[in-house]
Design brief:
- By secondary structure, this protein is an alpha/beta fold.
- The chain has three domains: 5-13 and 194-280, Cobalt-precorrin-4 Transmethylase, domain 1 (3-Layer(aba) Sandwich), CATH 3.40.1010.20; 16-98, Rossmann fold (3-Layer(aba) Sandwich), CATH 3.40.50.11270; 100-191, 4-hydroxy-3-methylbut-2-enyl diphosphate reductase, catalytic domain (Cobalt-precorrin-4 Transmethylase, domain 1).
- The chain has nine helices and twelve strands.
- The protein has helices at residues 16-31, 46-54, 80-87, 99-113, 127-136, 168-178, 193-206, 221-233, 267-280, and strands spanning 5-8, 36-39, 57-60, 70-73, 92-95, 117-121, 141-143, 157-162, 184-187, 211-215, 237-240, 256-261.
- It has a four-stranded parallel beta sheet with strand order 1-12-10-11, with helices on both faces. The protein has a four-stranded parallel beta sheet with strand order 3-2-4-5.
- The longest helix is centred in the first third of the chain and has 16 residues, at 16-31.
- It starts with a strand and ends with a helix.
């Protein structure tokens, strides 16, 4: 019987921003005096969040409940007013916001100051987008695609910023839809390079295999986007959080299986999935 080939995407797993956030969190835990929390999950990976809790770093969802100790700002960032509120209290703040997210916040603020109506391409309820919108102003719009644009725009000068984990295809579609409707448009491509690398490599791999496994948190925007992109070229794509979710029926009559992972997926989760695959295809 011909052995099943297992391919791992060239770019998969932790990005620089996630590694930086984890490093800052662990340093803060080692040095903290008093309770230490992250405002919302530091990254979107339940396994990692559980491990941080074992190190004494708990998740706090409401910044108003934090009156002492150390608060770590998650990699997705937070709304501007939250940072202002924390600064007014006796709370030590460790800002682990990804630098790409910071850039999107800065671009949104600049567009607002220069009189543009800001359009944010992203998931409306995602914490990163909520943070960006706080810099973009009350007249900003959040859309997931051209279909979400209103019939009439408030201004004829529009600026676009992007949730860092969106795809270039979505940005191109939105830009093409906006261009004929406005007098002036400025587009800031704030998709992070790590996202672009992972998406490009994953799609190329998906075209060359019979099944794709995308490893990472089900609540992770960038991992979900990877799964969507891979599924568009290889319908037999499965988004899993752990190796235990892999089913033997997925591997019937296959010659090659591809594995990729989101930017918030630790190496050990990828390794566990690959090990499980090897056991199942022997």
């Amino acid at each position: 019987m011909t052995p099943v080939e297992i391919r791992i995407s060239e770019y998969a797993g932790y990005c620089w921003g996630v590694e930086r956030a984890l490093k800052l969190a662990r340093q803060a835990a080692a040095e903290a005096r008093g309770p230490i929390h992250t405002l919302g999950p530091l990254i979107h990976n339940p396994t990692v969040i559980s491990a941080l809790a074992q190190q004494g770093i708990e998740v706090l969802e409401d910044s108003r409940a934090k009156t002492a100790g150390t608060m770590i700002i998650r990699s997705h960032g937070v709304p501007r007013q939250v940072m202002d509120e924390l600064a007014a209290r006796a709370v030590a703040v460790v800002d682990a916001t990804c630098t790409f997210v910071k850039a999107a916040q800065d671009k949104a603020a600049r567009l607002r100051e220069e009189g543009y109506q800001v359009v944010i391409l992203g998931e409306p309820a995602h914490p990163e987008v909520l943070g960006i919108r706080s810099y973009a102003g009350p007249d900003s719009l959040v859309v997931e695609g051209p279909e979400d644009l209103p019939p009439e725009l408030e201004k004829q000068r529009v600026g676009v910023v992007v949730q860092t984990t969106q795809s270039h295809e979505r940005l191109a579609a939105l830009s093409a839809a906006l261009a004929p409707r406005v007098r002036e448009m400025r587009v800031y491509n704030t998709i992070c390079s790590a996202t672009e690398q992972r998406q490009t490599a994953a799609v190329a791999m998906a075209r060359a295999v019979d099944v794709v496994l995308v490893v990472g948190g089900k609540n992770s925007g960038n991992t979900t986007r990877l799964a969507e992109l891979c599924a568009a070229v290889q319908p037999r794509t499965y988004h899993i959080e752990s190796a235990d979710e892999i089913r033997s029926e997925w591997l019937r009559n296959v010659m090659a299986v591809g594995v990729t992972a989101g930017a918030s997926t630790p190496p050990e989760q990828i390794e566990a999935a690959v090990t499980r695959l090897r056991e199942m295809v022997r």
